[in-house]
Design a protein that fits this description.
four-stranded antiparallel sheet; about 240 residues; alpha+beta
């Protein structure tokens, strides 16, 4: 019996260099230039063992070296570099690191533009849970309990539609698979209609066409942007 091939995922971070002394740019400039010139990614500056600053750059060498002369001069002793394979992810990774670590030297704390804040939903769910528990203890508010359960089902259903909100007027999306062109319609609520069937995610809609067990629908379907160019729907999350 033939073994199934394991699906290999491509790493976002391809190379790294950690806790290197700042004086390398003066003492071994040619070496560090040959190693990281033109590389893109995330860098971190440390004051001894404490994280001081996090940044991103399309040219890591020139960016880190510049911090020996700007407002960060004499405030850091070591640096680390993380080379990113795909430039599209660099800004989002930087924002994530900034929000987690809150370095002293960063004025900006990082924005997650396309990320949904779950705090309001958590507050609503906690309130609903309290209503249900109160009703069980006091033997009342059965109507409120039913209303809460209905809202829970609605929230759960809605959360399964990752394209919801991206196309308020609806949108045609396109795909090319094995030389054949496919079209699907995205409703304003995020549902996707393909060949008469309705799906809640681009991946499920893509699986319906390719018959694969798993796939990344964000890198399968395309839509026409403002210029009329077909681009992957993954661009919506940038």
């Amino acid at each position: 019996m033939a073994r199934k091939k394991k699906h290999k995922t491509r790493a976002i971070i391809t190379e790294h260099l950690e806790k290197i002394g700042a004086n390398v740019f003066d003492d071994y400039s040619s070496v560090i230039t040959d190693l990281i010139k033109g590389r893109q990614g995330i860098y971190a500056l440390y004051n001894n063992e404490r994280l001081y600053y996090v940044g991103l750059a399309s040219n890591l060498k020139s960016r880190v070296k510049a911090h020996n002369r700007d407002r960060h001069q004499n405030k850091w002793t070591h640096f680390s570099l993380y080379i990113i394979r795909k430039e599209d992810h660099v800004k989002e990774i930087e924002s994530l690191v900034l929000r987690i670590s809150r370095p002293k030297g960063n004025k900006v704390k990082g924005k997650l533009k396309k990320s949904k804040n779950l705090r309001p939903l958590l507050k609503r769910m906690l309130k609903d849970e309290w209503i249900i528990r109160r009703g069980g203890i006091l033997g009342e508010n059965e109507k409120d309990t039913r209303r809460v359960e209905h809202r829970k089902r609605k929230i759960k259903k809605t959360d399964k539609r990752p394209l919801q909100g991206y196309f308020p007027q609806g949108k045609v999306i396109h795909a090319n698979y094995k030389g054949k062109e496919y079209k699907a319609w995205v409703y304003s609520n995020g549902r996707i209609k393909v060949n008469g069937e309705i799906f809640d995610s681009p991946s499920l809609a893509g699986i319906a066409i390719t018959k694969k067990k798993t796939m990344n629908g964000w890198r399968f379907w395309k839509y026409k942007d403002k210029t009329g160019e077909l681009v992957y729907i993954d661009k919506l999350r940038k």
